[in-house]
Design goal:
The chain is an all-alpha fold. The protein has 2 helices and no strands. Helix content is 91%, strand content 0%. This is CsbD-like protein.
């Protein structure tokens, strides 16, 4: 399922493409920047989820060891 950041990356790519087609360097650069920022946010979200999953795994292991 696409995340909000995937949508923002696509939006940035479109904006960048429009800037290239029209010769508008400002729009092109803004679109490229939006893509990069959205990708960074997506990676951060994925990392957060991975860490949370690891923490839950450790908690479950500790609970099993306590029994």
């Amino acid at each position: 399922m696409p995340t909000e950041e995937k949508f923002n990356q696509a939006k940035g790519a479109i904006k960048e493409g429009v800037g290239k087609l029209t010769g508008d360097k400002k729009t092109e650069k803004e679109g490229a920047a939006e893509k990069v920022v959205s990708k960074a946010k997506e990676v951060a979200e994925d990392t957060k989820e991975a860490v949370e999953g690891a923490i839950e795994g450790v908690k479950n292991m500790v609970k099993k060891d306590d029994k």
